[in-house]
Amino acid sequence: MDHAPRLRTGGYVIDFWGLGYEIAARMGLIEEINRIGYHMRELRILDPNGRRASGFGTKVFGELTGGRFVTLGRSDLSRLLFEKVQNNVEVIFGDQIGELHESGQAVTVTFEHSGERRFDLVIGADGLHSRVRQLAFGPEAQFEKRLGYAVAAFETLGYRPRDEEVYTIYGAPGRMLGRFALHEDRTLFLFVFTAEPAEADLQEPAAQKALLRKRYGNNAWECSRILDELDRAPELYFDRVSQIHMDRWSRGRVALVGDAAFCVSLLAGQGSALAMTAAYILAGELANAAGDYQRAFQRYEEVLRSFIRHKQDGAARFAGSFAPRTRLGLRFRDLVVHACALPGVTTLAFGRDIVDRLKLPEYRWPRLTQMI
C-alpha cells in the first residue's frame, strides 16, 4: 500500500551496494540496475570560486565492494522492484492506514478510503515517518534521534554546466550543495545544512524555499543560479535528517522493516539496501517458522540488530562530513578526502562502514501468497 496515487517518480539518487545489491542480483535485477544506473568516477569538492579544493576517484568504492556498487535513482529502484512483484501481490495506491486493532487471531486495519480489512500480520515498511509505527508503538518522538541537519533536493532540466559521472559538491560552514548530472539532460541538486528543529520541520514549500534562499543566497559558486532554478521547480523534497532507534521492531502481530524500524539517516546512503536486507530476512524467518510469527519476529531481530546498530553508528559519524559546522571542520574534511587518493587511505577511512560483514542466511521459499 502507498499513500501516493501512483508509483513515485523523481526524488534523489542513492548509492546502492552491499547486501541489498546481493538480493537484487538474486532477483535477476542487476543487469537492468547497471543499465539505468550511474557509474561515478570522481567526487569533486569545489571552493566558493568553483575551483577544485579536494576530491578523489571513486574507483576505490568499487574495489571495496568487489565491483558491486552503482548509483541510481531511488524511484528507479522502486520501479524495478515493483515490476518484479506486481503480478504476485495486491497493491493499493492513494490510501493509508487510519487505525489498527489487534485481536487474538488477526489485525483489523481501517483504511482511510478502502474500508476495513483483516490480516494475519501487518508489516510496516512506510519510512522514517511511519504511520504503522505511530499506531502500533507510539509517537515518532519516542524513537527519533535528530542529527541536527535538514536535507532538500529537486531536479531541473537543461542546466549547465554538466559534469557527467562526477559528484560535484560546494561546501561552507554548516551547509553543502551538491550537483549531479542525471539522464535525459536532467540535473539533481542536493542541499544538506544545519537546522534548528523549527527549520527542519517546515511543511509549506514556500517556507522551505525561503529557508534555502536564506541559507544559500550568496554569490559563491553557482548558488544564485541554482536558487533561480529552485523557484521554477515543481517539486521539492525537504525533510530533517534523523535516525530511528527502537528497543524492538515488533509488537504482537505487527512488525517494522527498513526506515520505519531503524532509519540510519538519508546521509548514510544505504537505506534502500538495508530495507531490502531486512525484508529478505523477515520473509525468510516467517517462511521457516511455519506459522509461529512470534518466533520469526524474534529471529529477525537476532540476525539483524547488531548489524543495524553498526550501520547507525557509522552513519552518525559520517553525517558531519557532509556539512562540517566550522571552517576548520571543512578544512579537515577536505584533507581527508584529498588523502583518499592515496592507496589504502579510503579503506582505512571508510572501509568499516562500506563493507557489509553480515552473511545473508539461506532460506527455503514457499510459493507466494497474496499480500498488501
Could you give a quick summary of the protein structure above?
The chain is built from 13 helices and 15 strands.
Question: How would you describe this structure to a colleague?
Answer:
There is one protein chain. By secondary structure, this protein is an alpha+beta fold. The chain has a domain at about 145-240: D-Amino Acid Oxidase, Chain A, domain 2 (2-Layer Sandwich), CATH 3.30.9. About 40% of the residues lie in helices and about 25% in strands. The protein has helices at about 20-25, 30-35, 60-65, 75-85, 130-135, 195-200, 205-215, 225-230, 260, 270-290, 295-320, 325-340, 345-355, and strands spanning about 15, 40-45, 50-55, 70-75, 95-100, 105-110, 115-120, 120-125, 145-155, 165-170, 175-180, 185-195, 235-245, 250, 255. The strands form four sheets. It has a seven-stranded mixed sheet, sandwiched between helices. Strands 5-6-7 form a three-stranded antiparallel sheet. Strands 8-15-14 form a three-stranded mixed sheet. Helix 7 packs antiparallel against helix 8 (about 225-230). It starts with 12 loop residues before the first strand and ends in an 18-residue tail after the last helix.
